[in-house]
Amino acid sequence: MPRSTNSVSSRKKRKKIIKLAKGFYGSRKKIYTVAKNAVEKSFLYAFSGRKNKKRNLRSLWIQRINAGTRTYGKSYSDFIKKLSYHNVKINRKLLSDISMNEPKVFKNIIDFVYS
Fold first, then answer.
1. Residue 95 confidence (pLDDT)
2. What angle do CA 42, 45, 51 make, to 5 degrees?
3. If exposure means fewest CB atoms within 10 Å of the residue's CB, which of 3, 63, 70, 108 is most exposed?
4. Number of H helices, E strands in the chain
5. Local structure of residue 91 (DSSP, 8 states)
6. Phi and psi dihedrals of 67, rounded to 5?
7. What is the CATH number of the domain that holds 41?
8. Is position 22 within any domain?
9. What distance in Å separates the CA atoms of residue 20 and residue 1, rounded to the nearest whole number?
10. For the chain, how many structural domains are there in total?
11. Is the Cβ–Cβ distance between 52 and 41 less than 8 Å?
């Protein structure tokens, strides 16, 4: 009895990897074994990139809050400490947005915290 191969699903699996490698340079998009390694590595980069994106955005929010507090002669660390002391539950993302787009509201927050 001849050997049976599952060529349909094998080809489907290879085509999926080659499709994911679209846009890669040279043999990384053409040759299956090289493309497979490149796609696996790209998934690792994508995973760590999603984590780095969160880290970078938090850093950006902190810089914006710091710039907003410095205009009133206060420091970021002191401002955050006083926020927690007064039980003000506003996250850094919202604070940075307020400091950039609503300076009067941000001034009111600073006045409340430092009163």
1. 95
2. 145
3. 3
4. 5, 0
5. -
6. -65, -40
7. 1.10.1900.20
8. yes
9. 37
10. 1
11. no
Q: What is the pTM of this model?
A: 0.76
What backbone torsions phi and psi does residue 89 show, to the nearest 5 degrees? -100, 70
Residues 6+ apart with CB under 8 A from 87: none
Structure tokens at 111: 């006045």
Domain that holds residue 29: 9-113
Check the CA dihedral 96-99-101-105 and report its sign: positive
For residues 2 and 17, give the distance between their C-alpha atoms in angstroms, rounded to a whole number: 29
Of 27, 44, 98, 35, nearest to 69 by C-alpha is 98
Residues 30-75 have pLDDT tens digits of: 999 999 999 999 999 999 999 999 999 999 999 999 999 999 999 9
- What band does 1 get if pLDDT is binned at 50, 70 and 90? low
* Gap between the Cα atoms of 26 and 83, Å rounded: 54
- Phi then psi for 74, rounded to 5 degrees? -115, 165
Q: DSSP letter for 75, please.
A: -
